[in-house]
Write a structure and sequence with these properties.
- By secondary structure, the chain is of the alpha+beta class.
- The protein has three domains: 9-128 and 215-325, Up-down Bundle (Substrate Binding Domain Of Dnak, Chain:A, Domain 2), CATH 1.20.1270; 135-208 and 339-463, no CATH class; 484-554, SH3 type barrels (Roll), CATH 2.30.30.
- The chain is 58% helix and 9% strand.
- A five-stranded antiparallel β-sheet has the order 7-6-5-4-8, with no helix packed on it. A three-stranded antiparallel β-sheet has the order 1-3-2.
- Helix 10 (353-390) runs antiparallel to helix 11 (397-431).
- Keywords: Coiled coil, Cytoplasm, Cytoskeleton, Phosphoprotein, SH3 domain.
Length: 566
């Protein structure tokens, strides 16, 4: 039997988005597992380093207090400080990365479950109505055939039958006509319900899932593979870290997902969930970067790698790429609906032509009345739409969307009624040997056979009513992007601002933006502002801009003549 949902673009979008969301959940769960192992490793390393530092402090307490002892005491203190940094990092990964990610997955699972149930329920209604139409039509065909057989029998035997027999046959004929009328009305009602359940199913798909994006494919563990470890750290972690090649092979094993995403009424909820997931992953990366940056000068190499990695992240660009990939070349969708098929339309049966015409005329009259009502409703909605275009303040955005949706549904119902009217009018023209009416240009009617019965189906072209989710840079504030984490430009820096100190560049730094300074080892920079995020603002050779605080060493404070150049 033909599947009524085959070829529906809404269903394809829903299935693709569902698959994409499933891959996103898998990625986040795997990420949580990796982060948990990383946190356990950091805490375990901190405990081991703390234990070693305690042993060293204990054995040093019995040593003669000399310059060598003082140096080794500093080494012990450095080990304790390093252990505390690792412990804080492990705890931060658990509380600021794993827990929010776990909470997000739990919340999204609770949100998506009722949505998926609603989609499944509405899809079952479409299939059930489709099958019910076919079943009821077969019953109507049988009732009509039996009624016609009984009618012909009564007509052929009424001259020879007695009054009692005539009365009995007329009673049978009345009962048959009553059953036929009830079955006909039931069939017509079910057929009219068909487009309603179809629209409900499509509407459920539209409002449930939206779909938004390609997952962020960056390595969270790259800084650890590139950092400069102390001898103690390296001996402890050498066999427990994944290599850069293995790290990237894990993350790039996730495919780029192609998702259909349309232009007018977006599948809003899932896309918002996916956008929230991307935003959270970006926030986790930023938190991770801040914690690792606190390791100080002993981890400066790791900080450079982290900076390079994080500056490559651009959540806004990822979301825009997804939206571009989810665009659809088609601007319309095809809606297939069953038309009413009557016994009277089959010229091969033995029904009398006059009775056939009379029955078809009754059905045409019913269709014409319904079409007139729907047409008036459509004209009213079109007038409201025109008024909204001429006066945008006439109604709010939600009201405009509701009117557009009602206009689309009314147009579909009118097309269905007109297609039924056209089919019956064509049959009437054949009976009266007249020219057939012209086929409507907006639909296509075809027949298909199911065992011993033919079915008429109309394919109606409709505009796509899904709109693309609009992104804004304001919603991505704080996300991992290519912009450094500082405010530009500083409002408190003016031509007469006093410097707050000076610093010396320890490493070369290549500016990536126009408002950054190029540094070479040994350069002296006048500091004018310090930022807690790790970016300072100052002057170098007459040029003002930002530079990373981890690349410089602050000099002892003294008065600096601002007019001089370093």
């Amino acid at each position: 039997m033909k599947d009524p949902m085959t070829g529906c673009i809404y269903d394809r979008v829903y299935q693709d988005l569902k698959k994409f969301s499933k891959h996103g959940e898998t990625f986040c769960k795997e990420l949580m597992t990796v982060l948990q192992e990383r946190a356990d490793l950091e805490i375990s390393y901190a405990k081991g380093l703390q234990k070693l530092a305690s042993r060293f402090t204990k054995v040093s307490s019995n040593t003669i207090k000399s310059s060598i002892y003082k140096v080794w005491t500093c080494v012990s203190e450095e080990m304790i400080a390093t252990a505390e940094l690792h412990r804080k990092l492990g705890t931060a990964i658990q509380t600021e990365a794993i827990q929010p990610l776990s909470q997000l997955l739990d919340d999204q699972t609770k949100k998506k479950k009722p949505l998926e149930n609603a989609v499944g329920k509405s899809a079952k209604l479409v299939t059930s109505n489709w099958n019910q139409q076919i079943k009821t039509k077969k019953r109507l065909m049988g009732c009509t055939k039996e009624h016609e057989t009984l009618f012909q029998f009564v007509e052929s035997t009424k001259q020879m039958a007695t009054e009692k027999e005539k009365k009995k046959m007329l009673n049978r004929l009345k009962k048959s006509a009553k059953v036929l009328s009830q079955t006909d009305e039931e069939y017509y009602t079910i057929n009219m319900t068909g487009h309603e359940v179809r629209l409900k199913w499509e509407s459920t798909l539209q409002h449930c899932y939206q779909a938004s994006k390609k997952h962020l494919l960056w390595s969270i563990f790259k800084p650890w593979t590139d950092r400069s470890f102390t001898v103690c750290e390296r001996s402890f972690l050498m066999n427990r870290l994944i290599s850069p090649k293995e790290c990237f092979s894990i993350f790039f094993s996730y495919p780029l997902f192609k998702i259909l995403f349309l232009n007018i009424l977006c599948l809003h909820r899932i896309q918002e969930m996916e956008k929230e997931r991307i935003q959270l992953l970006c926030d986790i990366l930023n938190i991770y970067r801040q914690h690792v940056s606190r390791f100080g000068e002993t981890l400066i190499t790791a900080q450079k790698q982290i900076h390079q990695t994080v500056t490559m992240v651009d959540a806004e660009r990822d979301i825009k790429t997804f939206l571009d990939e989810t665009s659809v070349s088609s601007e319309e969708t095809k809606t297939e609906l069953l038309l009413v098929d009557y016994f009277e339309e089959d010229s091969r049966n033995g029904m009398n032509n006059e009775r056939r015409k009379a029955s078809i005329l009754m059905k045409l009259h019913r269709l014409q009345n319904d079409a007139s009502k729907v047409k008036r409703d459509k004209e009213g909605l079109e007038r409201m739409t025109k008024a909204q275009r001429e006066n945008p303040t006439f109604s709010d955005a939600k009201n405009q969307e509701d009117i557009a949706r009602l206009l689309d549904e009314t147009s579909l119902k009118l097309n269905l009624l007109e297609a039924n009217f056209f089919k019956l009018t064509s049959t009437m023209a054949e009976l009266e040997k007249k020219e057939k009416p012209s086929r409507p240009s907006y639909n296509n009617i075809y027949k298909w056979k199911d065992k011993d019965c033919h079915h008429s189906v109309v394919m109606i072209s409709r505009p796509i009513r899904i709109r693309r989710l609009q992104t804004s840079t304001s919603s991505l504030n704080g996300s991992g992007s290519s912009k450094p984490f500082y405010n530009t430009p500083p409002k408190n820096i003016g031509a007469n601002d006093q410097s707050i100190g000076a610093c010396k560049a320890l490493y070369d730094f290549q500016a990536k933006r126009d408002d950054e300074l190029n540094l070479q080892a040994g350069d002296i920079i006048i500091i004018q502002q310090k930022d807690d995020e790790g970016w300072w603002y100052g002057t170098l050779q007459g040029k003002k801009g930002y530079f990373p605080s981890t690349y410089v060493e602050e000099l002892p404070h003294f008065n600096i003549n601002k007019t001089s150049e370093a």
